[in-house]
Amino acid sequence: MFDTHSHYDSTKFDEDRDEVVAGLTAPNEFDPQGVKYALTCGDSMESSRRAIALSERFAHVFAAGGVHPHEADGFCAEDLAVLEQWYVQKKIVAIGEIGLDYHYDFSPRDVQKRVFAAQLDLAKRLGAPVIIHDREAHADVYEAILKSGVTRGVMHSYSGRREMARDYVELGFYISFSGSVTFKNAQGIVEAAKSVPEDRLLIETDAPYLAPVPYRGRRNDSHLMYATAEFLAFARGVSVESIINSTRENAKRLFSVE
Fold first, then answer.
1. pTM exceeding the 0.90 threshold for the entire prediction
2. Is 10 helix (H, G, I), strand (E, B) or coil?
């Protein structure tokens, strides 16, 4: 499997991070195949630095760098130059996690929009893929992406309607599903997951968050994503192997991983 979104720099992994990350490639009781790659995503500049450090220590880990809407209030112009340097130097494979979050509003919405637009513009100029966070801000996120001209990226832990997933696919985006697709109240997300073309489908954990049923409530890691793959396979009427293989190859293509 290719876990396209995780946060292994999270404090929830402080006690056993090396053990967990090193063990991802081996099968275990939750995952009979093991994890080929994991992308660990920064949500602030400091978090992005930690993600890069992890990717430099583990060959199966890649890093993404960006400033999450929760952290937008602390963003400065110099951060853009650092992100550009990281991408050019191949320390990161994508700009993210970036976007808008109107659920918590930890940063003022006008600040969120400005920081999001700046990072989209950087990605457009670099030709870099973006990793998009969208929580209760669907219209504004879509408008910002359209305005930026960015056509290469992924809607992370997708929570929108089937029709909007289609709109993003038409733009050139990939749609990624986390353990939330397995939740009891997720019928709308399931319908979106059933509709996404095979060559635009991705899976992720958002570890340590959003562990899938039947592990909901425990700390998530990339091994538990096998349950998400099983769920999507059943929903789409295909084999688990088909989901794992297609999502892995899609992720390699999006993030230019050989």
1. yes
2. coil
